């Protein structure tokens, strides 16, 4: 099979998932649930490669289903079977769920999205019987729960625990590279230039951050370890920035200590030896930004080891306290996704109301999924192509099962058993490199269109109409993603650039921004990571985006420093005027970056005699701003 392009480990995972789906179908049928095939669909949706992810996704799928079923029951009860208020209420509900799903992360986001289209499953597929809505909702919820429990039971026995060492090893190697790079800069006395190695380090840190959420699934300890790892990443950015601010000169002694610490990390030394070298280096350059960053790095690594359950000689909480985890929230994208989903549901719902097309609820159900789950993808319009192909194959599979295989059944049990080969066959789609992108939609649509009852119901034309309605959903979604707030990795990158630069302007306008420096800094750090990843996927110039993002951070530090000095009352009249003038210019940095850079340079000159540390920081920000004028204007 490998010779013909099948991935055998993936086939193993897919086949045992298919077996669990068959088991869920059989249990749901034994319990007399109306749509037992939905339990099998739930197994496919809940399947995950590790126990932690399986548990967490199962929990949030259950919670999302319960919330969605309650919302669907409420909508049907209020509408009384009238499709007009039902469509309006469902559209608004899905819009809210999409917004929440785009603001949240991980499986919490998945649960929010699921709350939206679970309401569609209740509200759309039995609109003619509003008097039975409570029993309908209970049946839908029970069907999903059977699938969740079956997926957890089978998956827990056959799925491995998460491999924690992989992420820890990557973090250790990044730390070693960062220390090596800083040691080289200290030996030659040039710490202000950003080289390709530092850009590569930031790219690796961004890649680590992107895949951290799944590693925190399933347990409190894993979640704490991921949070501690994000703190280490944040501290590493601070160290890189502190090294670039200059003013350290040549210092071979500190460089030797950093090299020794790096060698320990490279060798996989889990003792406190490398951390002791970092502590010694921090002590040697105490009362400087570099010393503070080195000391915080040591404390953050110790906190991470504690979160992993490892023993360390000393622990402090300052690493977490000085670098709290503040994650990027895409408020612009969430608003656009919500509007897109609501408009799509309303327009197709109006088509249903106007034409009375019996298969329209299937189109609305499919569209509620297409405009929710896929709204978080980098390029959902491109993804819709594979979704469409998978759904066409799924529809063909369902038609073949219903009209070529089921007629041989003599009772309902045989109908259920004859469905199972089509479920097991989905594992082949999941394990071949060519069909993998379409496999999930094949598995889901083939089951969605099949209703295992005996005697068999429905004719070919009615089932074909339903299949066409389902397949139309990704077509409509593709058009929507193309026309309504077009979305791809490049658009997401531009949104992030706008948000980062405008955040600088907000900081300059907020007189007490320095009182919230931890929040500002944490959010900007995480946005830098996201921006680097989107730049890589969109084909944008990685160098320009990385340099521009670091320039934003440098300017942000200068804003906080200037505000602290102004509020302290320690400035002379001339120094205060220069600092306030720089802050005033930074309020328009997206449109006038050259003027803001000049104002920062003047402020640095004024501060150089009495406040050399702050002057160095402001001068570095002015230089970074001059070098990245084009980046700043992208947000104008």
TrEMBL record:
Alphabetized Pfam families for the sequence: FUSC
Alphabetical keyword list: Cell membrane, Membrane, Transmembrane, Transmembrane helix, Transport
GO molecular function: transmembrane transporter activity
Domain of life: Bacteria
Localization, UniProt: Cell membrane
Chief site of localization: membrane
Membrane topology note: Multi-pass membrane protein
A cellular-component GO term for this protein: plasma membrane
Name under which the protein is recorded: FUSC family protein
């Amino acid at each position: 099979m490998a010779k013909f392009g099948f991935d055998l480990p993936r086939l193993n995972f897919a086949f045992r998932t298919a077996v669990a789906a068959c088991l869920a179908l059989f249990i749901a049928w034994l319990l007399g649930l109306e749509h037992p095939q939905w339990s099998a669909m739930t197994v496919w949706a809940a399947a995950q490669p590790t126990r932690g992810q399986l548990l967490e996704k199962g929990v949030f799928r259950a919670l999302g289903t319960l919330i969605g079923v309650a919302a669907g029951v409420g909508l049907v009860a209020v509408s009384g079977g009238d499709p007009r208020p039902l469509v309006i209420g469902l559209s608004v509900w899905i819009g809210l769920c999409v917004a929440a799903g785009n603001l949240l992360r991980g499986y919490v986001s998945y649960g929010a999205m699921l709350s939206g289209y679970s309401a569609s499953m209740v509200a759309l597929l039995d609109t003619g019987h509003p008097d039975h809505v409570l029993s309908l909702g209970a049946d839908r919820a029970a069907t999903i729960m059977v699938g969740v429990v079956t997926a957890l039971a089978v998956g827990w026995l056959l799925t491995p625990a998460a491999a924690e060492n992989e992420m820890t090893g990557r973090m250790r190697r990044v730390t070693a590279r960062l220390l090596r790079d800083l040691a080289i800069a200290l030996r030659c006395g040039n710490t202000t230039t950003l080289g390709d190695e530092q850009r590569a380090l930031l790219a690796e840190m961004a890649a680590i951050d992107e895949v951290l959420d799944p590693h925190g699934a399933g347990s409190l300890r894993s979640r704490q370890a991921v949070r501690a790892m994000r703190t280490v990443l944040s501290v590493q950015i601070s160290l890189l920035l502190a090294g670039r601010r200059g003013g350290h000169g040549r210092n071979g002694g500190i460089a030797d200590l950093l090299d020794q610490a790096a060698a320990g990390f490279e060798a996989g030394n889990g003792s406190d030896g490398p951390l002791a070298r970092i502590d010694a280096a921090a002590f040697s350059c105490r009362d400087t930004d570099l010393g503070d960053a080195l000391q915080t790095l040591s404390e953050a690594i110790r906190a991470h080891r504690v979160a992993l359950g490892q023993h360390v000689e000393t622990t402090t909480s300052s690493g977490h306290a000085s670098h709290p985890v503040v994650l990027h929230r895409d408020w612009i994208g969430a608003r656009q996704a919500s509007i897109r989903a609501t408009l799509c549901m309303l327009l197709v719902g109006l088509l249903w109301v106007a034409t009375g097309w019996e298969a329209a609820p299937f189109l609305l159900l499919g569209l509620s999924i297409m405009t929710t789950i896929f709204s978080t993808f980098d390029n959902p319009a491109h993804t819709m192509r594979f979704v469409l192909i998978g759904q066409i194959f799924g529809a063909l599979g369902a038609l073949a099962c219903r009209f070529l295989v089921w007629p041989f059944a003599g009772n309902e049990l045989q109908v259920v058993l004859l469905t199972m080969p089509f479920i097991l066959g989905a594992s082949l789609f999941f394990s071949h490199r060519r069909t993998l992108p379409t496999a999930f939609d094949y598995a889901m649509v083939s089951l969605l269109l099949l209703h295992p009852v005996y005697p068999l119901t429905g004719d070919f034309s009615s089932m074909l109409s339903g299949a066409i309605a389902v397949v139309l959903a990704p077509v409509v979604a593709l058009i929507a993603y193309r026309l309504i707030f077009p979305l791809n990795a490049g658009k997401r990158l531009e949104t992030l650039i706008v948000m980062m630069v405008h955040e600088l302007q907000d900081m300059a306008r907020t007189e007490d921004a320095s009182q919230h420096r931890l929040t500002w800094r944490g959010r900007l750090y995480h946005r830098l990571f996201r921006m680097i990843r989107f730049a890589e996927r969109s084909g944008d110039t990685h160098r320009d985006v990385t340099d521009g993002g670091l320039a934003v951070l440098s300017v942000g530090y200068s804003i906080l420093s200037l505000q602290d000095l102004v509020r302290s009352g320690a400035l002379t009249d001339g120094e205060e005027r220069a600092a306030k003038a720089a802050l005033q210019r930074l309020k328009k940095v997206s449109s006038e970056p050259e003027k803001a850079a000049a104002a920062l340079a003047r402020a640095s000159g004024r501060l150089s005699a009495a406040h050399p540390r702050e002057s160095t920081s402001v001068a570095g920000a002015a230089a970074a701003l001059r070098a990245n004028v084009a980046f700043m204007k992208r947000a104008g």
